[in-house]
Structures are given as structure tokens and as C-alpha cells.
Design goal:
Blueprint lengths: L1 E5 L12 H8 L5 H4 L3 E5 L3 H13 L2 E5 L17 E2 L11 H11 L6 H21 L13 E2 L9 E2 L5 H18 L3 E4 L2 E9 L2 E9 L5 E5 L2 E4 L20 H8 L4 E2 L4 E7 L22 E5 L16 E2 L1 H5 L9 H16 L8 E4 L1 H14 L7 H27 L8 E10 L2 E2 L12 E3 L17 H21 L13 H20 L5 H16 L5 H21 L11 H25 L23 H4 L1 E9 L2 E8 L14
Parallel strand pairs: 1-21, 2-3, 2-11, 3-7, 11-19
Antiparallel strand pairs: 4-6, 5-6, 8-9, 9-10, 12-18, 12-20, 13-17, 14-15, 14-16, 16-17, 20-21
Helix pairs in contact: 3-6, 3-12, 4-5, 5-12, 10-11, 14-15, 14-16, 15-16
């Protein structure tokens, strides 16, 4: 591990609030007739990919879009529940572009890039306008304005939502825009195709190698630029809120072809997930952060209290977030809420059969809403039963599908008893390093949405993932990619017969054959589960030097065992999900090691990266701004060998301070 050069993020000059406007006014353009001769590949069709593909095709580029699902509508963006942030200030509660910018920088514990975050805040309002125009059914207030609710880390209501299925509704909007372009022939859609490598020619990204997941055939596809919109890598932990198909393969193969990986150790633990029920589980289910808007989080004041939640009287409950953080209460950022839950459970105050859970209680909200309905309808001498009935109806309207999901999974009715929740891996702030234009260190190769590192620092505020994905696809990449493609108008069509395509395809095929010929005794799933346990135990909610060093050695040993003992059933040139899984696990085994190296190298605590050696007397994250105010960008050299490059972070527009939500 060596430290090398400092990175240039290509941030435009000038005041923060005019950078993006000035950039858009001066960036090189490609005229419409030339756009028709330029091909762009988009890998991934979630919010970032679908919006980018639709926008670029609308501009006139020839677009090829790839997803490994059977339809773009099954992209994991569909799983987002709670909402999308925007600085519209409909509530008239003091929100602004600057406040959204500041909250995002502070929420990320001062480890994100100022210029990108301000641009994100600037375009946030346009995202809402775009989605409303597409027919996204956002919730509305009585007067017709779009409704907002609260999310963690802020003191204003800026989160737009569609019940508890915001991601699904937003994706349907982006999918409609994408399908329109497919219908007119501007986008060629490749479903059930997985990208397994990128092809660089003369220092520029010129295409990809994909596997047809139905036939098993490898295919070559060329383009003048490639956009990776492939999501995050949370499934390196095995158990996470991500769909089981989510993986790091596209980004990781790009990393091994020269794209630096930024801040890989910055992973987010979400505080409101349904607790693990046993070793049989293969994924976890998220309860939206929006539930913290009205719910109250607590544990019993007495250790090992086995009484049902409803039997514990008010005076024997510890509303620990409200006690520790009076200014923000239950709405502290995710990393703080998660660590606080872990601390209470580790101290013996956990609830439920595993004692690794805390309560999220809606009794007070139901009572409050019920009394409001009674007053609104001029009902005198309302019975407690009627108040409860009316209150539950309001909660059902706001959060009904989430409550139904909880009941189906746990068998408990959250309208009657408190939910039990515990933190779980949810999102990855790290990703491929990109400059202001969203280009990686490989010219012509871009990364959008969760696949890049750029906007969230060491901790993402809730409801900002959907915002970033759509901002990158609809409002950023259509401008920034033109600066690069303006130099490509004389390039002409790129032949897939080039020797580099043949070489990379042969390497991909060689890896597949190797996986199939090992014929060991252990399934890819077993290796994935073992890796996940190492990562969760030693690079999860808390890390320390000894544990990280142990994890690196254990992962290296597990990877050697994988390449000696993995058993992949089936054949090469056919439908083979077990082979697909093995390919993805092989990449997770390499990524996991880099994550531990990155966590070991960063001798500070910040956001979701909590090194136990670096904390305040009150147990909060203790940053080291003097030595670690930079983005870690890792260059792949060879197995277990990376070189560290640094992008220094400069804050000219905000005051750096220790985060406080008290």
C-alpha cells in the first residue's frame, strides 16, 4: 500500500452558487446531427440509469441500455420507501438550497465534495417538477400542494413521498421515459444481460463485455462512452436491505481496468430494519426512515426486561434518542441512531427474543392523530376507542403498506404493539471515484448514482439516494458528457473486432471456465455468507485496528479457499444462476479486503466509519480534520495490492465543526 498523487476533481472556478450555471453556459456542445453518430452505453436501469438513458436518447444520442433483471422495472430503486429530498420550502419552515447543501455536508460528517453537493441541492427542485410532470403520485396536502415529511439529520420537512413506495413510483416515471425512447428506437434495451468487464482502447473506455444470462453467450458491445449506473455494494455483508441480486461486479471490473475506487469503507447502517431472526435468513427488510417522523424509539429502563412492550409503563421506558439528542430526538442521522441502538442492546437493554432490537412505538402518534381528527370533526365526548380508531386511520393513510409489510413478516400488528427494529447494512457512500463531470479516472467511463462516491461523504441523509440518482441522470450527465463527446465526433463507429475486445472477452471466458472446472465441495452461497460474517463483525457498525487486520487475513484465506473449493453447478453456455452468483462472490471477496484496508488506513471516526479508538467521551465519532480531510481513491495494482491517491477536500462556504444534534 503506497500513497501517490493528489487528484484533480475538475471543479469549475468561481463562487459556489454560480459554478454549475457558469459550467452549463460554457461547456462544449455536440450539435444534433453529430449526436446521432455517437453511441452511449448505459449499464443499469434504476433511477440513475433509466433517467440517464432516457435523457441522452431524447438529446439524440444512440443509446444501448443493459440490466440483469428481466425488466428495468425490477431495478432495486423500486425498493426505496420513504421519500426524496428537495429544497422547495413548501412548508415555509425555513428551507433553502443552502440549507439542503449544509445539512447534506454536515450529515456526511464533512467528508463530501462541496461543489457536487451544492449542485445536487440546486437541481433538487427540478427533479420534483420533472416527476410531477411524469405523473408520479406524490402525496398532497388538503390545499393541493405536495406534502412533505421529516427525515433524519434535518430540522425542516423537505421529503416528498408517495406513501411508503416512493422509489417504485419514481422508477415507474423514469421507466416510462425510458420506454418511450425504446419505442421510437433511440434506446436499444438489453434485459437479462450482465456486464462482466469494460474494454479500454488507447486509454479510453470503448465498450463492455456482457453475458446473456439466458443463453450464457458472451457479447461485445462498443460505444463512445460508458455509464455505470449499477448501484451499491452493500451485499458484501451478505445480510443487507439490498435485493439479493445487487452486486459490485460491474464497478469492480471497471476498477480493475483503471477506475479508482473512492472511500470503500464508507458504508451506511440503517437504524430501522426488521431484526435478524436466525441463521436461515438471506436478506433483511427495511422499515422506512419516514417512520421516525412520527414513531418514538425506546428501550426498557431495566436490563433484560422480558415484559411485552405494551406492559411496560411510561415511567419505565427510556426514550434514549430524545434523552441524548433533545434538538433532533428521533430524527438524528442514521449513523448516530444506529450506533445508539447498538450501544443500548450491547449494554443489556435490548428487546425481543434475540435482545438485539429496540422498540419503534406508534402509540403516541395514533393518540395524537386521533385527537386531531376528533377536534376536526367536532366530536364531543369521544371515547378512547374512537380516538384510537381515527388515529389508526390517519397512520394507515401515511404508512399503511409499511405496517402491513411488518405484520406479514413478523406476525405482529404494529397498530397494536410497538415494532421491533435493529440497524442493518443499507447503502454504500463509497463507490467509483468521479470528478465534477461524473467521469471516473478512465476517460469515457462515467459512474452515476450509488455507483459513485461523490455526494454523501461518510453518511447519507435519508431520502437523498433517490435525489442523487435522478439528479445525475436527468440534470447533470446530459451536460457534462457533452464536454467529452464533443471530442469524439470524428471518431466514427467503434468496431468490436478490435483486438482489445477479443483480449478482454477471452479473459472473461477464462475466469468463467476456471470457476466451472474447480468442482470443489462448497457452494458460492456458503462463501458469501462466511465473508458477510467477517465483514459485519470486523468492518461493520464499529471497527478497530486489531479486528481489521484479522479481517484482512481471514478474507485473503477465504479467497484462496474459494478458488480451490468452490463448486459451481451447471454449464457455461446456458442459463446458470449459480455461475452468476459465483462471479459476483469472487468480486465481493476482493472488494471486502479493500474495504478493510481503507478502514484501517483512516485513523479517525466519521459518519458511518466508526473506529473504536477514535471517539469522544460521550461515544460520538471523533474526526481528524488535520490528517484525514480527503477522499481516499484506491488504484488497483494486483491481488491484495492497491495504491492510495487523495483528493483533498476544501470547504470555503461552511464552517467545519464537530457534529452536534443535541
Amino acid at each position: 500500500m503506497a500513497t501517490s498523487s493528489h487528484l484533480d476533481a475538475k471543479i469549475p472556478d468561481g463562487p459556489l452558487d454560480t459554478k454549475w450555471t457558469k459550467f452549463r453556459s460554457s461547456v462544449p456542445l455536440v450539435n444534433p446531427s453529430n449526436k446521432r453518430r455517437i453511441e452511449v452505453i448505459v449499464v443499469g436501469t434504476g433511477l440513475a440509469g433509466a433517467s440517464a438513458a432516457a435523457s441522452l436518447a431524447e438529446l439524440g444520442y444512440q443509446v444501448k441500455a443493459f440490466c440483469f433483471q428481466d425488466s428495468p422495472r425490477r431495478a432495486h430503486s423500486i425498493a426505496a420507501q420513504g421519500g426524496i429530498n428537495a429544497a422547495k420550502n413548501y412548508q415555509n419552515d425555513g428551507d433553502s438550497i443552502y440549507r439542503l447543501f449544509y445539512d447534506t455536508i454536515k450529515g456526511g460528517d464533512y467528508r463530501s465534495r462541496e461543489a457536487n453537493v451544492y449542485r445536487l441541492s440546486e437541481v433538487s427542485g427540478s427533479i420534483i417538477d420533472q416527476c410531477v410532470a411524469q405523473g408520479v403520485p406524490f402525496a398532497r396536502e388538503y390545499g393541493g400542494l405536495l406534502s412533505n415529511r421529516s427525515f433524519g439529520g434535518v430540522q425542516v420537512q423537505r421529503t416528498f413521498y408517495a406513501a411508503g413506495q416512493t422509489g417504485q413510483q419514481l422508477l415507474l416515471g423514469a421507466y416510462s421515459a425510458l420506454q418511450r425512447q425504446v419505442g421510437i428506437g433511440a434506446v436499444k434495451m438489453y434485459t437479462r444481460h450482465e456486464m462482466l468487464d469494460v474494454v479500454n482502447i488507447d486509454g479510453k473506455c470503448r465498450g463492455i463485455i456482457v453475458r446473456n444470462l439466458v443463453t450464457g453467450e458472451l457479447e461485445r458491445h462498443s460505444a463512445h462512452a460508458v455509464l455505470l449506473c449499477t448501484g451499491g455494494y452493500g451485499n458484501v455483508f451478505y445480510l443487507s436491505t439490498n435485493a439479493m441480486g445487487c452486486n459490485v461486479t460491474a464497478a469492480w471490473r471497471a476498477h480493475k481496468r483503471g477506475a479508482y475506487f473512492g472511500n470503500p469503507c464508507f458504508t451506511q447502517i440503517h437504524p430501522t430494519c426488521i431484526p435478524v431472526s436466525g441463521d436461515h435468513q438471506s436478506k433483511l427488510t427495511l422499515m422506512s426512515e419516514s417512520l421516525r417522523n412520527d414513531g418514538r424509539i425506546w428501550v426498557p429502563k431495566k436490563k433484560d426486561d422480558n415484559r411485552p412492550g405494551n406492559d411496560i409503563p411510561e415511567e419505565e421506558r427510556d426514550y434514549y434518542l430524545e434523552r441524548r439528542y433533545p434538538a433532533f430526538g428521533n430524527l438524528v442521522p442514521r449513523d448516530i441512531a444506529s450506533r445508539a441502538a447498538k450501544e443500548r442492546c450491547d449494554a443489556g437493554y435490548g428487546v425481543g427474543p434475540s435482545k438485539m432490537a429496540v422498540y419503534l412505538d406508534y402509540a403516541a402518534a395514533i393518540e395524537r392523530y386521533g385527537r386531531g381528527e376528533v377536534n376536526k370533526n367536532n366530536i364531543e365526548n369521544a371515547t378512547p376507542e374512537l380516538i384510537q380508531q381515527l388515529g389508526k386511520a390517519v397512520v394507515k393513510e401515511k404508512y399503511g403498506n409499511l405496517f402491513d409489510m411488518y405484520k406479514q413478516i413478523t406476525g405482529e400488528d404494529p397498530y397494536e404493539v410497538p415494532m421491533r427494529i435493529y440497524p442493518a447494512v443499507h447503502y454504500t457512500m463509497g463507490g467509483l471515484w468521479v470528478d465534477y463531470n461524473l467521469m471516473t479516472t478512465v476517460p469515457g467511463l462515467y459512474a452515476l448514482g450509488e455507483a459513485n462516491f461523490s455526494d454523501h461523504g461518510a453518511n447519507r441523509l435519508g431520502a437523498s439516494a433517490l435525489m442523487q440518482g435522478l439528479a445525475d441522470g436527468y440534470f447533470v450527465i446530459p451536460y457534462t458528457i457533452g464536454a467529452y463527446l464533443a471530442g469524439e465526433i470524428r471518431t466514427g463507429a467503434i468496431s468490436t473486432e478490435h483486438e482489445e475486445f477479443a483480449k478482454v472477452e477471452a479473459e472473461v471466458q477464462g475466469k468463467i471456465k476456471k470457476l466451472l472446472t474447480i468442482q470443489g465441495k462448497t457452494s458460492p452461497e456458503t462463501f458469501h455468507r462466511k465473508l458477510g460474517k467477517i465483514m459485519w463483525d470486523k468492518c461493520g457498525m464499529a471497527r478497530n485496528e486489531q479486528g481489521l487486520k484479522e479481517a484482512i487475513a481471514e478474507i485473503q484465506a477465504l479467497r484462496k479457499e474459494f478458488w480451490k473449493d468452490v463448486k459451481v453447478m451447471g454449464e457455461e453456455n446456458t442459463f446458470n444462476p449459480e455461475l452468476d452468483k459465483a462471479n459476483r462472490v469472487a468480486d465481493f471477496l476482493e472488494l471486502g479486503e479493500l474495504m478493510c484496508h481503507d478502514a484501517l488506513d483512516r485513523n479517525e471516526s466519521c459518519g458511518g466509519h466508526f473506529r473504536e479508538e477514535y471517539q469522544t467521551e460521550e461515544g460520538e465519532a471523533l474526526r481528524d480534520d488535520e490528517n484525514f480531510m480527503y477522499v481516499s481513491a484506491w488504484e488497483f495494482k494486483d491481488e491484495s495490492n492497491w495504491e492510495l491517491h487523495k483528493e483533498e477536500l476544501v470547504y470555503d462556504n461552511i464552517k467545519i465543526a464537530q457534529r452536534s444534534y443535541k
